[in-house]
Amino acid sequence: MEAEKRSGFVFPKVGQRIIRSVCAVSICFIIYYLRGQKGTPFYAALAVLQCMQPYKDSMAKMAKQRASGTFIGAFWGLLVIMIELYVLKDGMEITALTYLIISLATGCVLYTTVVLNFKDTSYFACVVFLSITVAHMEDANPYIFVFNRVTDTLIGIGVSIVVNSFHLPRKRNQDILFVSGVDDVLLTADEHLNPYSMVEINRLIERGANITVSTGRTPASLMEAIGPIHLKLPAIVMDGAALFDIQKKSYLLTCVLSYWQSKEIMTVLEQSGVNYFANVVMDDVLVIYYEKLNNSAEQNLYNKLSKSYYRNYVKRRLPEHENVIYFMVIDLKEKITEVYSRLEQGGFTKEYKILIYDSREYEGYSYIKIYNKEATRKNMLENLKEMLNLEKSVVFGTNPETCDILIQNFDSNGLVKAIRKQYEPVKFLK
């Protein structure tokens, strides 16, 4: 179902979890009729909805919680019924003493979950226990309800596992490396992840797809933006100047400016009257050297970014013999244009990779970033493919000159469809 816009509101895409939940609930009702309408399908449907999770790990965890909670609650519920029948001999009539016993037994239910190290199941266990002892104690045969309560829950858990694991016959192309841009591709216009795309990308990664990202962001900025995506492969960061292992928080490869190159660049920037931030990687830590903050944009950036655990700002000149990943300058657009002209006249634009672009956050300001000439996303992608022993790659982005598949208008849903189509083509489709 395509998203529709009405009065500025965007209808989200119907995800697989909704579709699978509808199918699973329907199957529970079918099983109920096949069983001769025995039991209560409500409990089977409830178990389905609770266990229908977006990822296998979370589904298995929820199924375990639901099953263990049901057995614990049913055990104590059955015990209370037996006390009522054979000890108190009050029949199935609920008295004040019965309520007292139920209250005390609730504590036993909770304590059992602690002893068995099933603390996460305490709520489910109590719900099952109370549904047996409070809602159905006066049934003609409460034993049948206990049996059906457990059976219905197990049916729901089983149905959810089967439905959530079902896939059309597909061939998985695990010899392809899928590389996505971040800004304007994975992220929405307000720099958030699309929930549907996030879940579907995580599912593809869970099923073995080789997916990573390529971005101009630093690792810190990248993790802040796409943290919920469970990337397993290294990411191309800093516009190709580094390869970063997100899981190990480690720089695997960097393409740097030598200290002598950096010294030459710093001389020109200082002669131009602009401040600069020198980004250096030391023992897998990003250290950012600066001497002063000249304008409000620099001050705001510093206040915003210096709080991050992954960034370390040091107020001092770049130490001798330190290699620099890249220099970053932010200033008024007119000043940046002047600095770029000076660099161009000095032949720096031929010797180094220099990017210039307007700031989205600070009106009237622009950036300059200066890298090693070989620090490109294409070069780092080749290094990554060699590291992973993969020959094929598909790059998704917004620049038709550097990507294989063009993604426009923040269409992360289109990105997911394109990856799925190439990674898991249905076998009987040509």
Compact summary:
The protein is 47% helix and 17% strand.
Structural topology:
Blueprint: E1 5-6, E2 9-10, H1 16-34, H2 41-51, H3 56-87, H4 96-115, H5 122-135, H6 142-165, E3 176-180, H7 195-206, E4 210-213, H8 219-226, E5 235-237, E6 242-245, E7 250-254, H9 259-271, E8 277-282, E9 285-290, H10 296-305, E10 311-315, E11 326-332, H11 333-345, H12 348-351, E12 352-358, E13 365-372, H13 377-388, E14 392-397, E15 405-406, H14 412-423
Parallel strand pairs: 3-4, 3-14, 9-10, 14-15
Antiparallel strand pairs: 1-2, 5-6, 6-7, 8-9, 8-11, 11-13, 12-13
Helix pairs in contact: 1-2, 1-6, 2-6, 3-4, 3-5, 3-6, 4-5, 7-14
Low-confidence stretches: 1-7
Strand line-up across the major sheet: 10-9-8-11-13-12
Report, as a whole number of angstroms, the end-to-end distance.
Answer: 24 Å
SSE class: alpha/beta
Portion of residues within helices: 40-55%
Strand content: 15-25%
- Count of individual helical segments: 14
Shape: elongated
Cα radius of gyration in angstroms: 30 Å
Main sheet summary: 6 strands, mixed
Q: Would you tell me the overall average pLDDT?
A: 87
Order of helical and strand elements: EEHHHHHHEHEHEEEHEEHEEHHEEHEEH
The total beta strand count reads 15
